[in-house]
Amino acid sequence: MMSNRSGQWFVILLSVAVFVFVHISAQENDNAAEGEVKKVEKGEKTVNIKFDPYMELCRGTFEQHPAITSQLFCWYDVRNDHSVISPSKVEVINNDPFVALFHDAIYDGEIAQLQLLGDTHIKQSGLTNDSWMPVFYENHQTFTLHDRDHPVVERLTQRIERITGLSCETAEDLKVIYNEVGAFKTSAIDVIQTKEQFHRFSYAGNRLATVLFFMNDVSKGGSIIFPKLQVAIPPRKGTVAFWYNLMETGVANQLMKYSLCPLLEDTKWTAKKIIHTRGNELRHPCRA
Question: What is the pLDDT of residues 170-185, one digit of tens each?
Fold first, then answer.
């Protein structure tokens, strides 16, 4: 009788030991997936980087759980008189933090005009070395446009104010970005991070929100992804992506770090407008 009980206790203890070992191993693998640095016995340093979350999002093969997608929705925004005539087509792709798409928000003629304005003063952004892939590239060109440069730029600023409900009084100039095959960007967040930026935008406050115009379709690659939200936005001509960079406390929201997937075919044109906190103290996002 005692022998049978001892055997049962041995099996139970063995099962517990196996469970603890597997649990600890799983935790170590999870930490490694986040890029944690682990030291081996010989004192060498190894870094385990898991690319799967990035690759699935960039390939467009990642599928969100139905529990999340069931809470997403679309609507026609008719908050003002102009919207009654031409309502904004809004698609929420993440609730908290808020990320939305505005469809058919920029037109072919406006896109052509923005590209034409850049022909005379487009410049190289310079060599860039990103941490995700240690590769240098020179296929990223940008130029900025002020509202006074052309009526189409001023019209887009007014449209941004209308569809977002935020003031662009202290917003940065419109930044037009041109990418060729191979271009990518990783681990970026649109908030003030350096002393130079702090002094430069001392009158405007921190970077509250980002508005990104997609000006052409891309057949492969070029998506903007938010790895921590597991959200991917493929480039679609005429679509505008909008998200908040700060939490309600005014602190940078680290969940809003984004990457630009490598551009595998075609070229890509986007335009970015960053909205600051000054002038928007009383304009908060609507939470239903």
Answer: 999 999 998 888 888 8
Longest dimension (CA), the chain: 93
Give ∠ CA 153-154-157 in degrees, rounded to 5. 90
What phi and psi, each to the nearest 5 degrees, are found at residue 112? -60, -40
Examine the pLDDT at 34 and tell me if it is beyond 60. no
141: left (phi over 0), alpha (psi -120 to 50) or beta: beta
